[in-house]
Amino acid sequence: MMNSQIQNLQESYLQYLKENPFVGNPKNLYDPMNYILSLGGKRIRPLLSLIGNQSANGDIKSAMPIAHLVEVFHNFSLVHDDIMDRADVRRGQPTVHIKWDMPTAILSGDNLLVKTFKIWNQYNGPQKSEILNCYIQTAIDVCEGQQKDMDFAQMESAVTEDGYLDMIRQKTAVLLGAALKMGFLSAGGKAEHADTFYDFALQTGMSFQMMDDYLDSFGSESKTGKKQGGDILEGKNTWLKIKSLEIDSLRTQELFRIEGEQRITPVIEFWKESGLDNAIQKLAAIYHQNSLKDLKQLENWGYDISL
Prior knowledge:
single chain, 307 residues, mainly alpha, two-stranded antiparallel ribbon, 15 helices, 1% strand
C-alpha cells in the first residue's frame, strides 16, 4: 500500500472515532471513556484492521466496527494498566484514575470492555463468529500476559527468557496479530490465509518490542524522547536484565543494588561490555526476518499489506 492509502485509512478511522463517541448516564462514567480515546497515540491497531480488510478488497465501512472494537479494547487495557502501574501520566496527560478517581477508572474501563461486544454486535460483515472467537482468545491472552508481567515484577527467583518472551507475546503482540487477522476476516478473507496475517503482525510486534527495550537502555534521549535507562531505574525484569543475570548473576545483582539514577550508567556499560546491545538487536532481527517470510507468503498469494 502507498503511504497516501495508509494515511487515508488513518483519517477514515479518526473520522469514525469522532462520529461515534460514547454517550450515556451517568455522565461521569462516559466522560473518562471518551477522554482516554481522545488522548491520541499511533492508532496502529485499528489501522492494521483496515489494512487487513483492504488487502482482501473488503468494504471499509463494514470493517470500521472491527477496527473500533480493537482500539476500544486497547484503551480499556490502558485504563486498567495505569491503575495497576500507579501511573500518573498517559500520553502527556493525567491518567483516568488521577483525573477522576480509582472507582470511576475501574468502572469506565469495565464499560469500555463491555462496549466492545456491543460494537461487535453492530458488525454485519462476513465471518462474524470467527472474528468473535479470535477476539475472545486475544482478550484472554492479553489478561494472562498482564498478570504474568505483574508476577514477574514480584518474583524473587529469576524470570526465564522463554517466560519473558511469552509474556511480551501475550501482553503486546497478540493484539496486533488479531487486529490484522480480524480485519482480513471482515473482508471475507480465506480462513487458510488468516493465520499468516496474524503471525506477520505478531512477529512484527515482537521485533518492535525488542527494539523498544534496546532503545530504552541504549538509545539517546534526543532521538527517543524518553529518558535513557527508565527500565533500569525501575529494576524491571526485561530481556536485557534476564540475560545479564545469566551472564553474571552476582555482578548484575550488585549493580542493581545501586540506588537511583546512579545505577543507570554502570548497568549500561556492563551490558555493552557483555555484548547485550548487539544480542538484543539480533533477536529483534530474527523476529523481523520471520515477519518478512510471512509477508513474502502473503505477497505470493496476491495480498498487499506493505507498511
